[in-house]
Amino acid sequence: MISSEFVSRRKLVTADLARRRLDLLLVSKLVNIRYLTGFTGSNALLLQSPDGAVLYTDGRYRVQAAEETECTVKVVQGSLIPRVAKSLPRGRLGFEAAHLTFDAYRTLKAHLPSKVAAMPVEGLVEEHRMVKSEAEIETMRRSAALAWNAFEQTLQHVRPGIRELDLAAELDYRMRRLGAESPAFETIVASGVRSALPHASPTAKALGNGEILLIDMGAFLEGYASDMTRTIFLGAARPKAKRLYRAVLEAQRAALEAVREGTAAKSVDRAARRVLRTAGLERAFVHSTGHGLGLEIHESPRVARKVGIQLKAGMAITVEPGVYLQGFGGIRIEDTIVVNRGGCEILTPASKELIEL
Amino acid sequence: MISSEFVSRRKLVTADLARRRLDLLLVSKLVNIRYLTGFTGSNALLLQSPDGAVLYTDGRYRVQAAEETECTVKVVQGSLIPRVAKSLPRGRLGFEAAHLTFDAYRTLKAHLPSKVAAMPVEGLVEEHRMVKSEAEIETMRRSAALAWNAFEQTLQHVRPGIRELDLAAELDYRMRRLGAESPAFETIVASGVRSALPHASPTAKALGNGEILLIDMGAFLEGYASDMTRTIFLGAARPKAKRLYRAVLEAQRAALEAVREGTAAKSVDRAARRVLRTAGLERAFVHSTGHGLGLEIHESPRVARKVGIQLKAGMAITVEPGVYLQGFGGIRIEDTIVVNRGGCEILTPASKELIEL
User: Under an 8 A CB cutoff, do A60 and B176 touch?
Assistant: First the structure.
């Protein structure tokens, strides 16, 4: 990311401060600090004011901080919060209420000068992060392409007898060799009845003939996540499994068709849920239809019941209906997409036709 | 872990509640929930009382929770905190103040019946987690052995021209193939001057002849972390680098010799720091000597200045002094160890002799 992009992000945040009648913002959530400065270390606080941004970190990151950000950097020994708190000028200080812990809040309060008021702030930086710039979308495009390349390379080697664990290791290795920093989350490889666990960790179980194989994977590339799920069959799919697959695929298509700028997130969820209800599978769809992603694998907006937020062009979300039948198995189909004015761009164009390996 | 181990952990925690004059404990930190129940899902709350433990989670984890824990499980639609809060009996409810966010605390308060008082609790479950059982130590032994096996396998293929990224991918792949769930943290492969960044992420930089190569890696195996660092030389080490290496190795040995039951954590830190001071390198040692590890890669106790906590037999910590010279490079040597009565057991017995590949 070029440094002017960070400058303009900080300007937008600063403008928000004025609107919220705040003088300063204490950013404690590390991905938000990364978003605003480029700094990727594991210990930092950012103090943003109309006068500029100051990044506080510890001695381990002196060199790295100087390399990664053009902000003023202060290297602190010991806890960051007391040091930042003491240095504050009079005014209203926003803090990230969904991130700061109860303990950290108490420490902050205990060290604030008497003329500083600490005010909880909800999702300020996160709101800006929801809508991606063209540079961010391009990175996510590459992240998604990388994940499905790794998926397609690995698919050629899938056969009964391979353990879930080894298949997950292979997928992760290929993502890394293709340039990913890491998987975006613990890669799910769930076979047979284990596919009925929506968030199964891979085990030493070997893939069996005739089984369902559910793979949910994504990459972090230059900080940005991708996320995709494909469900395939080892050998001929049973008629019941085929029926479930078609229903989920139809639900996913209906949800994708519902996506466009101006649509409420809950309408996308409803579109998927309606198809599965018609198929008698609504109760087997035990999670929401999707979630935002970017610098985090789960971020706003959620694509779920009751989420009234309107989709905007540039929002990146997943669309991933699934059905899970305990003792039988599960089917999920997921793409990462970017909302645009007329619809969406699918970033994970791996085939969704029913595959019988 | 056998289920009786979870039962006895919960008994110890319940006994602590009485000592702290609490009637109930709301456990929100997921590794603490795992420690007390075996549940490994990503969304849960545990309510522990003298009458037993109730695990709250969402529909995605219905099957998994039933498989993983013998606790009572309640599957909740929507946010967990309001649901748990409403169901509480009169009394004093402890919550994890270092984990619960300010927002979650407010939600909890807003939904508590009027006869329930919410009391911040510091590190209750974490205190029990510090001292590992023999079963936990055995898992950590295998986690550490796995990491250094992967290290030694990979070392044979290290040569100038390989990119840091690819070496990190190789290390991670080998850990996975040896049975790890994942790396315990982002594997650090830092070569040349980049080794002066204590927490460098691997880059596309190729290893150069005559360079320092710092590798910091560990595995999660059955939930338990290991952590080791070795610094090696690609070709003949320069005299200055050799001198730094010997100083760090001597500091690490001094710290290891200081470890035994009853010693204060800060004394171990001081032992390492004293050696580096004598070598004129104290200011180049920019972090603390070590940290506890177990279900988390960083947990209590810290092994640092001012940490007066006494080491107990069964505590697992790292011992990892390092020196970092900007523009030249860095050296760090790290083992995972378990404290015992007369000293410690080193779980990462990879050679620490100076290696020139």
Answer: no
Cβ contact, residue pair B186, A181, below 8 Å: yes
> Given an 8 Å threshold on Cβ–Cβ distance, is A286 in contact with B196?
no
Across chain A, what does the average pLDDT equal?
95
Tell me whether residues B100 and A95 touch, CB distance under 8 A. Answer: no
Residue B2 pLDDT > 80: no
Q: Are B29 and B48 in contact (CB under 8 A)?
A: no
The C-alpha atoms of residue B60 and residue B45 are separated, in whole angstroms, by 14
φ and ψ at A9, to 5 degrees?
A: -65, -45
What pLDDT is recorded for position B200? 82
If you average pLDDT over residues B3-32, what whole number do you get?
95
A227/A296 Cα distance (integer angstroms)? 11
Residue of B32, B73, B103, B287 to mutate, interface with A, max A Cβ within 10 Å: B103
Please indicate whether, in this complex, the C-beta atoms of B64 and A197 are within 8 angstroms of each other.
yes
Counted domains in chain A: 2
Query: Across-strand partners of B344?
Result: B339
CB spacing of B100 vs A98 below 8 angstroms: no
- A278-288: b or e for each residue (b if 16 or more CB lie within 10 Å)? ebebeebbbbb
Q: What is the CATH number of the domain that holds A291?
A: 3.90.230.10
Range of the domain at A73: 3-129
What does pTM read for this prediction? 0.90
Rounded distance between C-alpha atoms, residue A341 and residue B334, angstroms: 53
3-class state of residue A304 by DSSP: coil
Please give the Cα distance from B116 to A352 (Å, whole number): 52
Helix or strand run (H / E) with residue A126: helix A124-130
Q: Spell out, as residue ranges, where chain A has pLDDT lower than 50.
A: none
Residue appearing with tokens 């596309």: B204
Together in a domain, B181 and B294:
yes
With a cut of 90, say whether residue B349 has pLDDT above it: no
DSSP states along A192-256: GGGGGSTTPPP-SPBP-TT-EEEEEE-EEETTEE--EEEEEESSSPPHHHHHHHHHHHHHHHHHH
Other CB atoms within 10 A of residue A107 CB = 17
Calpha distance B254→B303 (Å, rounded): 14
Kindly state whether residues A114 and A147 are assigned to the same domain.
no
Interface of B with A (CB under 8 A): 40-42, 58-64, 95, 97-103, 105-106, 120, 122, 165-166, 168-169, 172-173, 176-177, 179, 181-183, 186, 196-201, 286-287, 324, 326
Nearest to B224 by CA among B298, B296, B148, B291: B296
- Express each pLDDT in B213-231 by its tens digit: 999 999 999 999 999 999 9
Answer with the one of A129, A159, A175 that is the final residue of a domain: A129
- Using one digit for the tens of pLDDT, what is the confidence trace for B279-321? 999 999 999 999 999 999 999 999 999 999 999 999 999 999 9
